[in-house]
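seq:
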Amino acid sequence: MKTKLIVLLLVSTFVVSIIAGPVVLAGKGGSKGPSQCKDGIDNDNDGFIDYPNDLGCDNKNDNDEWNPTIIYCGDGTCNGDETCETCSIDCGECPIPNSCSDTDGGITTYTIGTVSGYYNEEPYEYTDFCSDEMTLREYYCVNGQWNSMYYTCQGYNESGVTCMDGACI
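struct:
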């Protein structure tokens, strides 16, 4: 009986040591050694070692050097929040919007004017001119685009009004 009790006690001790041994040996925090952010190793292969040099480390006890990919302008890829306005080197130049400006302020037949701007990313410039001694080609802007019309200078026959140098005089 005494032998059976000793054998049972030995077997029980063996079983308990197998189950509980790793837990006791690991202790609080395990047997991992120093954290990645103070172990002197570049664990994430980003060229930086430990806190504070490795941007993936929040502090020296942080056990993870990995940091997410940082998106920056100039990396050769248009990604994330980059746009042609914020990063033309990666995303390319922004298209030039259609535009129009008129130096005489619109349809003004008694003043020579010039419209200029961009249409389909191409620059343009058109100046009012006389197509003959009584007809003016008047350029003006409508909704950001150039337009033109032919205008007969009023009173041409009666009062001597004529077209000269891009205006009715």
